[in-house]
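Lecture 7 notes: from sequence to structure.

We start with a single chain of 373 residues. Read the sequence below before looking at the structure.
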Amino acid sequence: MNSEFTPDEINCFALQSEAARSFMRTCVPKAAFLPAYEHKDVITHVELSLDGLILCVVSVDKVITLWRRVDGFGKWTKYQKFKGHSGAIWRVRFAHPSFGNLLATCSIDANIFLFLESPITKSGRKAFWQHQTTLKYYTSAILDIRFAPFFHGLMLAACTAHGHVIVYEAHDPLNINYFNLIYDIKLGTRLSTIDWNPGRYNEIPILVVGSNSPEVPNDKRLTVLEISTNAPTIRENIQFEPILPNEKVQCVKFAPQIAATYTKMAVATKRRILIYGFFFEKSGKTEKGQAMTRPPRLLGEICDDISSEVMTLQWNSGGAALSVMHDDGTIRIYKQTFGSAFVKIVTINPPSHLLQDKGDTGMPPNHVARHNS
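Now the structure, written as tokens:
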């Protein structure tokens, strides 16, 4: 596979591998466990703000809990808890800090809620999160949402259980009370996960959408959408191999693009993770900027002999380390080495008392976060 890469691309692999080694020499993962009794039902999603200071937890019990980190990297304190939707909350996402402290939640009630944190006043009044606007979608439950990279403006994409990809845009980022539905793309199959290509300002915005429905053909498990100024384009000719028959796509996650000539994307199925590379070049067919002129290339595969299922993924800020969470609460961290191989460097197990709390069904207790879609 290495012979297919240019010398510049191979140099990028080497630089990222060295960066990963340096990063892991200086960083030792620490696990902090917050009291989950704040929620009375299954926790569906946990999201950390980009500055790492705010943690948001959502649950089937329709409650949103916000925690703030104090004393540097020490203690977490709860500073707000409130009811959000009329149905189970499925995902929560933070916007880029350039738009203020803004977060969005989606639910099976087919709504997206936007919350904004008010600033601390001169009188010393504490900051608090306040509901700003509701984006109503009447077709079906919304299962995932993502904010676009900030240089594309304040845009929010979502995918639904009935196979729609919807994109909202705030024409005035200073007034988030008014979002317009700019695209409603019907793909015709249940969609479970979505992510934006981080790219650069001169690249065509790209969305990748995944499906965890067992009835979807292999060539429809992952769909690439180019979001241009005229109309979105579905890249139907792109095939992601080697996704196997009946292999559900649990999560897709792009890595941050740090001075690289390509963008990495991780795709999680139940038992393995596939790493693809997206390459962008100048194309005369585009209005401006760079477009994806060749199909994504398989860079690597993580396939450990583990009985638990993969639930969600997260890259580190340099795009060289990948955290994988399994349905038994275990987190495994992999780093990229030269030649696109990923090596497991650490395993974080849940506390023993959580494992002892399992019932006769073998399912985790309610306070163990799961990310089923």
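Residues 355 and 361 are 12 Å apart (CA to CA). Keep this in mind for problem set 3.
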